[in-house]
């Protein structure tokens, strides 16, 4: 599915003339303007979540990082 999405983006959608780009083709605008601004991917993987165990206080709140969240009471 991902391969088909990339193929569609490159061969179909990326070749349409865009009114908002003054009739330019998005792929050409990307190559000419945006591609040079991209940074390389970081060498380490991105951490999506940090897991922890919390206890519910008397006022039915927990602390997640620096954020206090309400949780259902008993």
Task: Show the helix and strand layout.
Elements: H1 2-11, H2 26-34, E1 61-64, E2 67-70
Antiparallel strand pairs: 1-2
Give me some keywords for this one.
alpha+beta; elongated; single chain; 2 strands; two-stranded antiparallel sheet; 74 residues; 2 helices
Describe the structure.
This protein is 26% helix and 11% strand. The protein contains 2 helices and 2 strands. The chain is elongated. The model has no long low-confidence stretch (mean pLDDT 84).
Number of helices: 2
Q: What's the count of strands?
A: 2
Please identify the structural class as seen in this structure.
alpha+beta
Major sheet summary line: 2 strands, antiparallel
**C-alpha geometry:** elongated
Whole-number radius of gyration? Answer: 23 Å
Beta-strand level of the residues, as a percent range?
A: 5-15%
Low-confidence stretches: none
The termini sit apart by 45 Å
Helix content: 25-40%
The average pLDDT is: 84
The helix/strand series, from N terminus to C terminus, equals: HHEE
Order of the strands making up the biggest sheet: 1-2
């Amino acid at each position: 599915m991902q391969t088909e999405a990339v193929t569609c983006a490159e061969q179909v959608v990326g070749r349409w003339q865009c009114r908002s780009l003054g009739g330019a083709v998005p792929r050409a605008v990307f190559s000419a303007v945006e591609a040079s601004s991209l940074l390389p991917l970081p060498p380490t993987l991105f951490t999506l979540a940090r897991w922890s165990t919390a206890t519910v206080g008397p006022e039915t709140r927990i602390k997640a990082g620096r954020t206090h969240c309400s949780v259902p009471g008993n």
